[in-house]
């Protein structure tokens, strides 16, 4: 017998979807005169977190000489909002807690991780890193013991349900985790595990060695909530001489060895995106690894691949989008080997800032082809890329698929951004859900025959043949080279 509370939970999800389907869940935030902290790591699924802190001149100085900065930590999902105050201690009235000294990440359904460094202390200070977890149900705040963080530098985080790993390096020269500021090759990466009350359950222990240093790397578990399993690693390698950037997709095996899956050339001398991670998206959903990269062949070209968890290639394809410009994109793997849904944008100008632009969700099937002639379409809200950054994620909610889009203040500067940029202290976010079954309508009979033929004849021996065939005839069958029509 199904528990009645479980039945109620399913009904609740469906009620939310019923009112939410094809509707925009839209929120806009503005905090003038305060430091707003939010980035692409601060939202996941239907939840986002952010921090607002005082600016210099608003803090309070204690008799001990330390400075207290008052902040508010916010947690929002589709039906609940929490706000919790927190006071952080620094050592200089001119120091402020802001985007370049703090990261905030969701943890579970009702908690947040605050990782920050005291900007008033020299980088060599052994206890410069601070770590907190906020529990929003009662606004309790847990703080890591300084002995756990001593001499460690946070690099990145991997978050599970109620547990997380901090990827770190050490300032101690003879530590297995030591990395000097000058280190650029064969960089050791260590991990420290924490529960949601910041009890260190393991580490720091050596995890893997990164060929070329990239502190902005992305690491995600291949199996949900399994910290001991394999992980996806996406990192970048810059070649200054040729103004080129490669994105490398790999699997971190259980023993720490790296198995490389694919390299993508994502940036060259003609690229305007200053952050290479705007040019690559991934999904580890439903037991697969899906990756799309905006490569340098044309500005509207995506190279996409899907592997199983063992790293066996399922398909590889190139998508040519018939658009003028596009920036943010995302994907989510579908169950039972059905490929993935791909979210892309259609923009009329390079800044992609007007409200007349659009989003498209397209089904890419298990053969790397368009699975349907249908697109899910909706208008894109205004996001002026001269001062902002746009990002997107896809996720599954019940039997529906959703995507969240964010527009937040960008602190990178490149040729189309104003180096004298005035901080807006704003960000906006919306979430939309759609019926995935509608997008996966059965293709026509002739299409099924073509894909069946591909399934029975494709192998490595014929790879060159299919490449030639696609170049000459792919436009007629939507094979490999795919045009997503407006």
Number of strands: 31
Number of helices: 5
Q: Could you give a short account of the major beta sheet?
A: 6 strands, antiparallel
Rg, Cα atoms, Å: 23 Å
Shape: globular
Compute the separation of the termini in Å. 49 Å
As residue ranges, the low-confidence spans are 1-21, 442-486
- Give the amount of beta strand, in percent: over 45%
What does this structure look like?
Helix content is 11%, strand content 45%. It has five helices and 31 strands. The strands form seven sheets. Strands 2, 3, 4, 5, 6 and 7 form a six-stranded antiparallel β-sheet that branches. Strands 20-21-22-23-31 form a five-stranded mixed β-sheet. The chain has a four-stranded antiparallel β-sheet with strand order 1-30-29-28. The chain starts with a helix and ends with a strand. The model is unreliable at 1-21 and 442-486 (pLDDT under 50).
């Amino acid at each position: 017998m199904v528990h009645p509370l479980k039945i109620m939970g399913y009904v609740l999800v469906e009620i939310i979807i019923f009112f939410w389907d094809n509707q925009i869940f839209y929120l806009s935030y503005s905090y003038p005169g305060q430091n707003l902290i939010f980035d692409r790591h601060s939202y996941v699924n239907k939840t986002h977190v952010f921090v607002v802190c005082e600016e210099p001149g608003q803090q309070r100085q204690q008799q001990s000489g330390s400075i207290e900065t008052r902040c508010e930590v916010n947690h929002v999902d589709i039906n609940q909002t929490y706000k919790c105050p927190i006071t952080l201690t620094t050592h200089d009235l001119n120091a402020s807690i802001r985007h370049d000294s703090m990261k905030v990440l969701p943890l579970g359904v009702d908690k947040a991780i605050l990782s920050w460094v005291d900007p008033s202390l020299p980088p060599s200070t052994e206890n410069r890193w601070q770590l907190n977890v906020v529990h929003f149900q009662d606004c309790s705040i847990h703080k890591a013991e300084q002995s756990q963080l001593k001499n460690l530098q946070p690099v990145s985080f991997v978050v599970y349900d109620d547990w997380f790993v901090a990827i770190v390096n050490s300032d101690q020269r003879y530590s297995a985790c030591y990395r000097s500021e000058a280190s650029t090759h064969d960089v050791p990466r260590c991990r420290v595990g924490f529960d949601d009350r910041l009890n260190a359950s393991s580490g720091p222990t050596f995890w893997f060695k990164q060929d070329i240093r990239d502190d902005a790397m992305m690491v995600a578990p291949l199996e949900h909530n399994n910290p001991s399993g394999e992980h996806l690693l996406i990192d970048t390698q810059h070649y200054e001489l040729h103004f080129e950037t490669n994105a490398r997709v790999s699997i971190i095996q259980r023993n720490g060895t790296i198995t490389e899956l694919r390299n993508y050339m994502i940036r060259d001398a003609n690229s305007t995106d200053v952050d290479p991670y705007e040019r690559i998206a991934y999904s580890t959903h439903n037991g697969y690894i899906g990756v799309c990269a905006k490569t340098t062949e044309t500005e509207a070209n995506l190279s996409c691949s899907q592997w199983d968890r063992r790293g066996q290639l399922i398909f590889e394809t190139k998508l040519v989008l018939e658009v003028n410009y596009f920036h943010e994109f995302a994907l989510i793997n579908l169950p039972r080997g059905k490929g993935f849904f791909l979210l892309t944008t259609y923009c009329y100008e390079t800044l992609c800032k007007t409200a007349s632009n659009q989003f498209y969700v397209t089904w890419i099937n298990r053969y790397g082809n368009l699975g349907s002639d249908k697109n899910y379409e909706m208008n894109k809200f205004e996001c002026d890329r001269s001062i902002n950054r746009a990002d997107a994620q896809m996720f599954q909610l019940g039997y529906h698929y959703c995507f969240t889009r964010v527009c937040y203040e960008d602190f990178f500067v490149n040729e189309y951004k104003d180096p004298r940029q005035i901080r807006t202290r704003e960000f906006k976010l919306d979430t939309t859900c759609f019926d995935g079954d509608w997008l996966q309508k059965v293709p026509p009979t002739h299409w099924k025959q073509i894909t069946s033929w591909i399934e029975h004849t494709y192998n490595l021996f014929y790879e060159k043949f299919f490449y030639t065939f696609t170049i000459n005839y792919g436009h007629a069958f939507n094979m490999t080279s795919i045009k997503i029509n407006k």
